[in-house]
Amino acid sequence: MKEKETIQEELNEQKCEVNEDIAENNETQQSADVEEPAKEETIEERLASAEAKVAELQDKYLRQVAEFDNYRKRTIKEKAELILNGGEKTITAILPILDDMERALANMDKFEDIAAVKEGVDLIFQKFIKVLGEQGVKKIETENADFNVDLHDAIAQVPAPSDELKGKVIDCVKTGYTLNDKVIRHAQVAVGL
Length: 193
Prior knowledge:
Blueprint: H1 2-85, H2 88-107, H3 114-134, E1 137-139, E2 152-158, E3 169-174, E4 177-179, E5 182-185, E6 187-192
Parallel strand pairs: 2-6
Antiparallel strand pairs: 1-4, 3-6, 4-5
Helix pairs in contact: 2-3
C-alpha cells in the first residue's frame, strides 16, 4: 500500500507541475499578446523614422547636386570671360603709348630736327618697355651668356673669336622675352663653336 500511496503522491506532484507549467504558459502567452502590439508600433515608428531620414538625405543630395551644377556653370562662365577679356589690363596699359605714337607721327612732319624726333621716339620706346615690365614681361639677356636651350634658339653656329666664347652666345638676331618667368619667345642667337 505504501507503494500505492507513493505512486499516488508522485502522480499528484506531476499533475501539479503540469498545471503550473500550463499556467505559466498561459501567462506568457497573455503577456506576449499584450507586448505584440507594442512591438508592432515600434516597428512602424522605426519604419516611419527611416523613411523620414531617407527623404531628408535625398533632399540634401538633390540640393548638393544642384549647388555643384550651379558652381560648375558659374566657373565655366568665368573662364570664358577670362579668356575673352584676359588681356584687358595689358591693353589698357598700352593705350597711352599708342596715343604717344599717334602724336609723334602727326608732328613728325613739322619737326626738321631729326635729333628731337629720335629723342621723342626713344622716350616712347622706354615708356613701352616700362609698361611691359610692369605686366611681367622681361627681356632675355643674351650678351656674353652661355647657350641655354631653355632660353635660346640657335639659328647659326659661327667660329668663336676666342676659346672663351665657345658655347656662348655671339650675336642675338631676335630678342626673347619671358612673362612671369615663363619663356614666351626664345631668343634667336648665333652660337660660337
